Amino acid sequence: MIYFISDAHLGSRAFDHKRTQERRLVRFLDKIKDKAEAVYLLGDMFDFWFEYAEVVPKGYTRFLGKLSELTDNGVEVHFFVGNHDMWMGDYLKRECGVIIHKEPCLIELHGMEFYLAHGHQFDVDPQDWKTRFMFWVFGNKTIQRMARWIHPHWFINFGLNWAKHSREKYMHEGGEPQYLGENDERLVVFAKKYLEEHPGVNCFLFGHRHIELDLFLTHECRMMILGEWYSKFTYAKFDGKEIIMNNYIEGETEL
User: Fold this and answer.
1) Distance between CA atoms of 235 and 2, rounded to whole angstroms?
2) In this predicted model, what pLDDT tens digit does every residue of 173-208 receive, in sequence order?
3) What is the dihedral of CA 46, 50, 52, 55, to 10 degrees?
4) I want to staple 206 with a disulfide (CB 3.0 to 4.6 A). Which of 35, 75, 119, 122 is the partner?
5) What is the pTM of this model?
């Protein structure tokens, strides 16, 4: 069995009961550890992540320990960086055995072609120069090196507060985003265009948008957006033949 989840935003200062949320995620991973051949984390698992040469963000010990247990037991764990954790270095690779992906990936799983990405790369309005510039800044290697000159106390606090402000802005504007329809949902538009040039893709899987979407693009190709892991607790699983999306309810959901 192969599992997919995204957008836990662990450590977010906009959420109450952060430790309870982390424990729920860890219990989910614990329940699938003997069934999973691979787990794909499709980005924004942390609300902010930045590594210095000898310093990593405080916390997340239960989650990181469970990832290490999975990889120690032979389960492949793949992490696709999102816009909240795009400054990830090699800590999870070295210490936890996680495979890091900094770009979208087309991968074959049991004879089916999957296109996997967090999705922030494709969800930017061409006219939104502020967001495009921000992503360029975040991805610039020189700026990343310069950021490491700032003391971790100041920079990590800045990042967590920035992310908190972004989350609270969504809440102030009426909650989480809604599905915009096939013609306006940029991830759908991207997937359709990509499929025209790569007709062999069987499934697109994204995070980022915090909406749950299971859409057939063609008779042979589906697209899923995996909700999030702080209220919906969305996951997908693939048994080699069929992929399904569901919500994890402790004590009820059959994994």
Assistant:
1) 11
2) 556 788 888 888 999 999 999 999 999 999 999 999
3) -30
4) 119
5) 0.90
